[in-house]
Specification:
By secondary structure, this protein is an alpha+beta fold. It is built from four helices and nine strands, in the order ββααββαβββββα. Among the domains are: about 35 residues; about 80 residues, no CATH class.
């Protein structure tokens, strides 16, 4: 009984299989497919090839343009040390962190998970255009309440929440309604 050997191209593990069973379709070590493996070689030269493809350096510049908009690069490159830093981005991050410090709440943006900035408060009640929904004998909401508006500094998504004081009032009103029903 002769054993044949195969080397997994993914993890370089030597796979020994029996002739009676046949070759493995998947590596028993890393569980990657053995038959569909393809290798790709890239020419990393700095010059353009005969087909006119862009060099690696041009590709990296294009990627940098996507990461750092032209308005940020108008001041000139800001290469300092090991990696490229974007001063405007750092200043914006500092400003956001200073604005977040005094906030009572710091909700996460549902779209991108960044912390949201409080932008202001809005009063809802009689004369503001808000019409509460009537449930049974009264409204489910307090006659007047305030919402806090938040904006995401990354994706500019807007979100609003009731103030903590008004949430407590609402819970008290809902609790009273439950007590009356029992």
């Amino acid at each position: 009984m002769a054993e044949e050997k195969t080397v997994c191209p993914w993890c370089d593990t030597e796979i020994i299989w029996d002739e009676e069973i046949g070759p493995e379709d998947y590596c028993p070590h890393c569980e990657n497919e053995l038959k569909g493996y393809r290798s790709l070689s890239l020419d990393m030269e700095e010059s353009e090839d005969s087909e006119g493809k862009a060099s690696v350096e041009e590709y990296q510049e294009d990627q940098e343009d996507l990461l750092y908009p032209i308005s940020d690069l108008a001041e000139g490159p800001e290469d300092e040390g090991f990696r490229h830093t974007n001063r405007r981005g750092l200043v914006q991050e500092e400003a956001v962190s200073r604005l977040l410090e005094p906030q009572e709440e710091m909700p996460e943006c549902p779209s991108c998970r960044e912390l949201m900035l409080e932008t202001g408060r809005q009063l809802h009640g009689p004369g503001t255009g808000y019409v509460p929904r009537e449930i049974g004998e009264g409204s489910s909401m307090p006659a007047e309440f305030t919402v806090v508006w938040y904006v995401c500094p990354a994706c500019f998504d807007l979100q609003q929440r009731m103030t903590l004081k008004d949430r407590i009032k609402l819970l008290g009103k809902l609790s009273e309604g439950d007590a009356e029903q029992n």
